Structure formats: C-alpha cells, structure tokens
Amino acid sequence: MSAFWNKDVKKYVLVMAMTWLIGGVFLNLAFFRYAKQIRNEQFDTYGGIISAVREKYPNVAEEDLIRMITHLDAKEAGQRIMKQYGILEGGELYHGQNLQRTKFALLINGILALMIIGSFTFFCFFWWLRGKKLNELGNYVDRISHGNYELDLKKNMEDELSGLRNELYKLTVLYKEQAENEKAGKTALADSVANISHQLKTPLTSAVILTDNLLESPEMEPVVRTKFLREISRQLVGMKWLVITMLKLSRMDAGVVEFQKENVLLKKIVKEAIQNLEMMAQWKEIRFETILSEVTVKGDEKWLTEAVQNIVKNAIEHSPQGGVIEITTSENEIYSEVSVRDHGEGISDLDQKHLFERFYKASKVENENVGIGLALAKEIVEKQNGSITVASGADGTCFSIRILKYSV
After folding, report:
1. Which residue of 90, 211, 314, 325 has the fewest CB atoms within a 10 Å radius of its CB?
2. Which of 111-115, 145-149, 278-282 has the lowest mean pLDDT?
3. 48, 317, 323 from 281: Cα distances, Å
4. In the prediction, which pLDDT does 287 show?
5. Domain end: 97, 114, 145, which one?
6. Which of 92, 111, 145 is the last residue before a domain boundary?
7. Tell me, what's the pLDDT at 155?
C-alpha cells in the first residue's frame, strides 16, 4: 500500500497507463479500418461476380446468384477453379491486397514492439534515476555527519526523496543547534561560576582578614573593633546579595519563573524598595526625595519590587556621600513609569552600551560593585511587557522603568 503513495511510482504508472491507452486507441482504430477495408473488398468482389454472371446469363434469377455465391458446398469447387487460373496464390487480383495486409501487419507489430521497448526503457531509466537519487541522499547524509550543513536548494524537487532530504536537514540542524546551545550553556555556566568565584573572592578575603585581626587582637580599641565588624557585615551582605541575585537569574534563564498578572501600585513598590535599602542608604547618608502618584501597573509585585530595588541600589552605589536620589512615578496613555535619578559622576557612552551586561563593571567604578543587579532588573522588566532606559550626563544618571499598559 505504501508503494501506491510513492510519487515516483505514481508518475511511472501514470505514464505507462497513458502510453498503453494511446497505443490501444491507435491499434483499435487501425483494426477497425482494416476490417472496414476487408468488408469493402469482399463487397466489391461479390458485386463484380454478380455483375459478370448477370451480363453473361441474363436469364439467371438474382436469388439464384446470391445462393450460388454464399453456398458453402460450392466453396471448394470454386477454390480449385481459382487455383487453376492462379487467382488465390500469386494472382494479380489478390497480389496487391496481400502486400497491403503484410505492410499493415508489420506496422502493427512494429508499434507493439516500440511500446514494449519504450516501457522497458522508461522503467530502467526510472530505477536508474531513483538509485542515483538514493546515492545522492546517502552522500548528503554523509556530508552532514562530517559537519557540512549546507543545503543545495537547486536540487530540491517535489518528490519524497527531496522531502526526506529536507527533513533530514531540519533534524540535523535542530540537533546541531541543541548541541551548540548546550555547549553555550555550559560555557555560560562556567563563565558564571568563574565570575561568581572572582566576585566572592575579594569580599571573602577581606572578611577573613578582618576576622583574623579581631581574633588576634583581643585588646583592640572598641572604635576600631566596631569599624571592623561593620565592614565584615557589609562584605557578608554583599556576598549574600550576589548569591541570591545569581540564583534568581538562573531561575529566569531556566524559564521556571512564572510572573503574576495583577494590578499593583507603583508607589507601594517604590516604598518597599527604599525600605529594603534603608541601611545601605544610611551608610552613605543618602536622602530620598520622592514624588509618588497613584499609578498602577499590571505585573508581578514581588519581581517588580526586585527590579526597582536593584535600580535604586545602583543609584546609591554611584551617589556621593550625603547625596540625594530622586524617585518619581508617572503615567500616560501608553505606559506607566518609575524614574530613579542620582547625582553622581554620570556614565560614559561606552559604559552605557554594556550597562545591562552581566558582570560588567563601569570604567569609573572603584568599589566592589558587581554588574548583575541591572542585568536582573532588565530581565524582570522585559518579561513583564516593559523596558528600561538610561540617560546620563555630568549632573548624574536617570533610569526609567516603563511598563506598557497594553500588550504588543
């Protein structure tokens, strides 16, 4: 049954059927013509006989003439007489007719022979061409197995072998992409581990050194001891934030984070972000100036708070001691917005291009700031139908989180 749906076999059967059908029509027409010619010749012969007898013997009745011509008993006697005068074999009367019949028989046999030879030739050509295509398909699979993934579109036809060839190509490319993605994933994981190790190494070393000093100097002055303990606490908080942020990014990369769709007040998100960073702001004596209107967005409150918090944390890190950070919320017909502005040194054009890359460290940054907070914020906002823009100058930097009101 599967052979019936083979396109090449169907083509072959169709051509053969058409060939034999046309040949049969021509043969039938030839035989009909031949039979008609025989009937005409017999009619002419009998007519000539009857006319000659009537002319010689006018008194003979027409019924008797017809009876004599068609009477079977008179056939053998008549044949003897005709042989005697050389009419049946080699006689002038039938010589031309015999020659014509011989030519016609040769023509019929020639047509049949040509049809058979043509059918056999087409069948052989069909299987030769099919074998050639199968060999090409085998060579193509061999090239793919050796890393040659180029597809020759000129050889694509509407048959099952080309379809199989294309499907093999798609499957191979899919496996190639999966292998490359797995390789890229392993490389990214290795890079992330290396970056995390590098980023953890400095604060961990600093915390160990400070702890050793505290243990080795029991008589250390209370002011110095308090300073060391605060520094240890700051380093531990930084390491904790780094590990938690990386875990969150890993969950998002793995696609296991499901964002909720609910109406959330931006004012509530900003206040919670400021509260979570209150201690960090106190260390640098940062003051917040807020203008918060009753603006709502549709999204996940927990993750949006994380994004805003990372933007505010970045602003604190880049603000001068005792600086001011301005946070405002607003909306228009298209999007709702949270703006966070600091008054630091600003960000160069080169650094702005890489600002949201993981573990990127701006050229002017001298602290241990790890460049993954902004990357996480960008991931969160973009997955909730939003975007983050940045504008920076000599008077500071402004980050704007915009959440679209309608899906695009």
Report:
1. 90
2. 145-149
3. 134, 9, 10
4. 92
5. 145
6. 145
7. 55
